[in-house]
């Protein structure tokens, strides 16, 4: 089964139901994600979210757009008026100051080819930003799961892959997040910065880390 078919069979409704059905949650996660991953000046740049899902990261970005293979997810993006493409050939090449792929690379059958393709999307001087899960090594079912992670990452393996694809890694950091839903009442009270700090603190307390990597061609 190819990726687009898998993620069009109710995946988003099952895994990301709150992003679809809870507008306050969608907005809170979107705001927090922009603060977590983008530098303040980057919000004004041409940002392509590679594997944008339901579009929470690019929502509100004046020059933001997305690439997403799942038609189910694209429909949600288009209903919000977001600019999104379903075929890589449709995405303007050499036009993006920042290409971000958040929790995408581990789903792809050919991550090296994908990284090489992302390079053609970047404008001169552009930046690639990867956000990847830090996977734990635990017992697993012998049958495929709904998320379909095909690879596990550490900084060394990602940096090696980036070098093979023609990039120069510049930043390797952990970002800690947890509790976007449980802590939502903080955001509803009008305290978005406190909400962000609470999500980060919860991530540190439970050790839920993401790999945050910035690189340039």
Can you lay out the helices and strands and say which pair or pack?
Elements: H1 3-6, H2 11-15, H3 17-21, H4 23-37, E1 47-50, E2 64-67, H5 71-79, E3 84-85, E4 96-102, H6 111-121, E5 122-133, H7 155-165, E6 168-176, H8 184-188, H9 192-206, E7 209-216
Parallel strand pairs: 1-2, 1-4, 2-3, 4-5
Antiparallel strand pairs: 5-7, 6-7
Helix pairs in contact: 4-9, 6-7
| Low-pLDDT regions | none
First-residue to last-residue Cα separation: 32 Å
Q: Mean pLDDT across all residues, rounded?
A: 92
What does the overall shape look like?
A: globular
Helix content: 25-40%
Encode the helix/strand succession as letters.
HHHHEEHEEHEHEHHE
Strand content: 15-25%
The CATH topology corresponds to Rossmann fold
CA-atom Rg in angstroms: 17 Å
Structural class: alpha/beta
Count of domain modules: 1
In DSSP terms (H or I, runs of 4 or more residues), the helix count works out at 9
CATH homologous superfamily (4th level) name:
Vaccinia Virus protein VP39
Number of strands: 7
Can you tell me about this structure?
This protein is α/β, with parallel strands linked by helices. It is 37% helix and 21% strand. The protein contains nine helices and seven strands. The chain has a seven-stranded mixed sheet. Helix 6 links the parallel strand 4 (96-102) and strand 5. Helix 4 (23-37) crosses helix 9 (192-206) and helix 6 crosses helix 7. The longest helix is centred in the N-terminal third of the chain and has 15 residues, at 23-37. The protein is globular and about 45 Å long. The mean pLDDT is 92.
